[in-house]
Amino acid sequence: MGMSVTISVATEQDAEQIFVLQYLCFQSEAALYGNYRIAPLVQTLDSVKEELASDCVYVARLGDEVVGSVRGHITEDGAASIGRLCVHPRLQGHGIGARLLRAAESALSEERGAKRFRLHTGHRSEGNLRLYRRVGYETVGTAEGTDGVPMIVLEKAAGEYAATA
Ligand SMILES: CC(C)(COP(=O)(O)OP(=O)(O)OC[C@H]1O[C@@H](n2cnc3c(N)ncnc32)[C@H](O)[C@@H]1OP(=O)(O)O)[C@@H](O)C(=O)NCCC(=O)NCCS
């Protein structure tokens, strides 16, 4: 019998595990774009710690191990920006990513007053786009990542919870 994965608010002590997990999980995105300088791979541990202190950060845990994470914050225009969604490769495809996203959305709307959620992903990341569209996000535009990768920007209004698989 396996242990179950739980979703909870991240604590300061999770910084190292989130940092390492992010580095592992975003390797597939780096490979997809042939670009190993994408933002999640060059972010420093200190920067992750700063985001832990200021952002709304959730982790998925399996026992003591952090196996997934997501974070979000309110931007100048009042929308919540959600990012760094990642799940350990060995546990992907079991709905943990969708659960993390839901947890971040609920906290950002209920605790921080977000009326809209915004996220972005690389233009070739079909799996990510499928996940986001399935939970109600729609493309609103494009942007260029700090690393030069073309990104698709998606949004949904708070309260729109499309049925998940
Ligand atoms: C994006 C990411 C976080 C998704 O995490 P995940 O836990 O695999 O997400 P989910 O399981 O919720 O959804 C993924 C797929 O599993 C399927 N799934 C979900 N629950 C399932 C279940 N119980 N049984 C079978 N399949 C299931 C979903 O339908 C979805 O299928 P699809 O790819 O055909 O659309 C993960 O792939 C990842 O870490 N990627 C690398 C980093 C990255 O690109 N992050 C996003 C940055 S924008």
TrEMBL record:
N-acetyltransferase domain boundaries: 5-159
GO molecular function terms attached to this record: acyltransferase activity, transferring groups other than amino-acyl groups
Keyword Acyltransferase found: yes
The entry's keywords: Acyltransferase, Transferase
Keyword Cell wall biogenesis/degradation: no
Gene3D superfamilies cross-referenced by the UniProt entry: 3.40.630.30
Superkingdom classification of source: Bacteria
Pfam families membership: Acetyltransf_1 (PF00583)
Protein name: Acetyltransferase
